[in-house]
Each structure stands twice: as C-alpha cells, then as structure tokens.
Specification:
single chain; about 280 residues; mainly alpha; MetI-like fold; 2 domains; about 0% strand; Multiple sugar transport system permease protein
C-alpha cells in the first residue's frame, strides 16, 4: 500500500510538472502583455505586472499596427477552409468507407501516405502553381491548398464511418434514400461529436498557420494574424509587451472554442476508442 501511494505521488508530481511546463508560456504571454515597456525592462520576466495595464492591447489595435485587418483575414480563411474541409472530407471519407469501386483501398493508402510528406516540401510547387494562375497574394491562394479536405480529416472520418452499423444504412436504402440522403439523415447526425472535433482541430490548425501565408502573401492586404505577429518584431524594434499582447489576443478565441466544445471533443474520443 505504501509503495502504491509513492507511485501515485510520483505520478501526481510528474503531471503537475508537465502542467506547469505547458501553462508557463501562456502565463508569461499574459503577464508580459499587461506590463508597460518600462515595467518589462526594469522587472524580472516572471514578475506579475504592477499595476496591470491594457495599453499594449490598445496600441495593437491602433493606427500604428492595425491588428484588426489580420484578424479579419484569418477569420475569413478559417471559415472557408472549415466549410470546405467538413464538406469534402465527409464525402471522401464516406466513399472510402462504404462505397465499392476498383482500387479503393490502394488509393486511400496512397493518399494517406501524403501525411508523411513535410509541408516545406510542397511549398515551392504550390507557390509556382499559384503564381502561374495569377493567384499569388490573393485570398484564394490562402485557402485553395486546404479547402478540398486533408488526409488526416479523411482518415479520421473514414475510421468512424466504418463503425456505423450497416443495418442503419440498409434501412435508409430500403426507405428510398440515396447516397446523399444517407449522408444527410444517417451518417452526419450520428457523427456530430467526431465532426465537432474535426472542426475544432481545423480551426486551431488554420488559425495558427504561418508558413504558407508567409510565402504566398506580401504586404498588409492579405496578411494573416501569425504573419502580422511575427512582423511586430524587427531588427530595430523589440517591443515585447506588444508582441505578447498579440499572442494573447490570438490565444483567447481558441481557449473559448475549446471551453464551448470540450464535451463533444471528449465524447468523440470515447466513441472512436482512442486512448
């Protein structure tokens, strides 16, 4: 019994250390964002702001930085990509899970194998393609590489669709439903938790996307939030409180998103049997 308590205590300590290491950057971001430039320069980094100030956030949305435009562009990109990902991933995943056609499994595993290709490898070919068709530095250049689905999304949904009882689909067919009707009235309703999880993952991924927007856009017209945040730090300007204000503003919507949909995320993990 004593040994078991020691093991439990060690596990608890390890979890607390891991939680502290995970939360520390976020706490540092918030506390730095609430400091003035003078406080940041004259006090230890980990010291709390005394007193807190929202001056950096106000400056961030002022005329000098105009952080509203990058947030609006990022939100538009996320919405379009989210709708496209859900629509086309559902269609493709259902085809790979339930429809019979020659080479189905081989095509699926070849497509899934693209998960092993780093994003940096495809940046130059994508850039050349977008440039050739005149889409460089446009909104569509930001969304087209992602809007038609992704290997991860299709794999996740395919594995879930395969767990749906065949009797439900057969019953829908007997009632006269076609493929679209089965998707609309059977597959999608019973897959809401996993679709919610996929939506959360998609929003977080593309809210934080940096490399592709950095390469394909220039100037401030289609600058997304991550690129705008990186642009706050230059060789001659090191206003860290404003930079931390930008990262704090970027984090808040994601935290709210998780808090709203946390039950659906947990439920989807239970349904899919992930451990």
């Amino acid at each position: 019994m004593r040994r078991g308590r020691l093991v439990d205590a060690a596990v608890l300590v390890a979890l607390l250390v891991g939680a502290a290491a995970t939360l520390a950057p976020f706490v540092l971001s918030v506390t730095t964002a609430l400091k003035t430039t003078r406080q940041f320069a004259s006090t230890p980094v980990l010291s709390p702001p005394a007193p807190p100030t929202v001056e950096n956030i106000v400056t961030l949305f002022g005329r000098d930085y105009d952080f509203v435009t990058p947030i609006a562009v990022t939100a538009q990109v996320v919405v379009v990509v989210l709708v496209g990902q859900l629509l086309f991933s559902v269609l493709a995943a259902y085809a790979f899970a339930r429809l019979e056609f020659p080479g189905r499994d081989a095509l699926f595993w070849v497509y899934l194998g693209t998960l092993m290709v780093p994003q940096a490898v495809t940046v130059i070919p994508l850039y050349l393609m977008m440039t050739e068709v005149g889409l460089r530095n446009t909104f569509w250049a930001l969304v087209l590489p992602y809007v038609l689905g992704s290997p991860f999304a299709i794999f996740l949904l395919r594995e879930h669709f395969r767990t749906i009882p065949q009797d439900l689909i057969d019953a829908a067919r007997l009632d006269g439903a076609g493929t679209v009707g089965i998707l609309r009235h059977v597959v999608v309703p019973v897959s809401r938790p996993i679709l919610t999880t996929l939506a959360v993952i998609t929003v977080v991924t593309h809210w934080n996307n940096f490399l592709w927007p950095l390469v394909i856009t220039s100037g401030r017209t289609w600058q997304v939030m991550t690129v705008a945040t990186a642009g706050l730090q230059t060789q001659y300007n090191g206003n860290w409180p404003v930079v931390m204000a930008a990262t704090t503003v970027a984090i808040v919507p994601l935290i709210v998103l998780f808090l709203v949909f946390r039950h659906s995320v947990v439920r989807s993990i239970t349904i899919t049997g992930f451990r």
